[in-house]
Amino acid sequence: MSDLLNEDEIKTLIKKVPEWELEGKELVRVAEFDEFMEGIDFVDGVAEIAEEANHHPDIDIRYATVTLRVTTHEVNGLTDADFDLAGRIDNLLD
Amino acid sequence: MSDLLNEDEIKTLIKKVPEWELEGKELVRVAEFDEFMEGIDFVDGVAEIAEEANHHPDIDIRYATVTLRVTTHEVNGLTDADFDLAGRIDNLLD
């Protein structure tokens, strides 16, 4: 299991995933698509990555807007695993 | 577009979809699975139905728990389209 990151580590890592916002102990990314099914395709891609990493974001679908929230519940905060997952999800959207 | 249903109509229709809770102006169903990917498969099935009906529920995924919220935003309440969608989604889980 990854270790809890401290504030300085988080400040450094967040710069590598600029599409994500830090909200409390979570990384949050809102992805907006033109159509509902594009959002669903994105969720399917996220799911595949999440399952592979055994690290699963919270996913909210509001028509064509998908919000992802990533944290490590086991340590009640952010770890390398969260930033790794965020980076891999970003690759889906590049 | 479907017409807004009155309270009596809603009371009758909700009996046909007993897995759904009435929460304010929404129908809500929480579907719990054993594994994350089962929930994702369910969401894919819901998406197909929703796209066909051109009526899209809010979908929240929390690991293997999927929460659906159905309402008709255009009339700010529940319509036949909501109960039709709920019933069709239930067929996925029977």
Overall description:
Two copies of one chain form a homodimer. Chain A has three helices and four strands, in the order αββαββα. With 94 residues, chain A is α+β, with helices and mostly antiparallel strands. The first copy, chain A, has one domain (7-93): Gyrase A, domain 2 (2-Layer Sandwich). In chain A, strands 1-2-4-3 form a four-stranded antiparallel beta sheet, with helices on one face. In chain A, α2 (36-53) runs antiparallel to α3 (80-93). Chain A binds chain B through residues 36-37, 40, 43-44, 47, 50-51, 56, 58-63, and chain B through 36-37, 40, 43-44, 47, 50-51, 56, 58-63.
In brief, what are we looking at here?
Two copies of one chain form a homodimer. Chain A is α+β, with helices and mostly antiparallel strands and 94 residues long.
Number of domains in the coordinates of chain A?
Answer: 1
Beta-strand content of chain A: 15-25%
Taken in chain order, the helices and strands of chain A follow as: HEEHEEH
Query: Which CATH class of chain A?
Result: Alpha Beta
Q: Biggest interface, which chains? A: A-B, 15 and 15 residues
Q: Supply the CATH architecture of chain A.
A: 2-Layer Sandwich
Tally of extended strands of chain A? 4
CATH level 3 topology of chain A: Gyrase A, domain 2
Question: Into which percent range does the helicity of residues of chain A fall?
Answer: 40-55%
Mean pLDDT of chain A: 96
Task: Give, in spatial order, the strands making up the sheet with the most strands of chain A.
Answer: 1-2-4-3
Rg of chain A (CA only): 13 Å
Q: Give the oligomeric state of the chains in this entry, treating copies of one chain as homo and distinct chains as hetero.
A: homodimer
The CATH homologous superfamily of chain A is termed Transcriptional coactivator/pterin dehydratase
Low-confidence stretches of chain A: none
Structural class by SSE content of chain A: alpha+beta
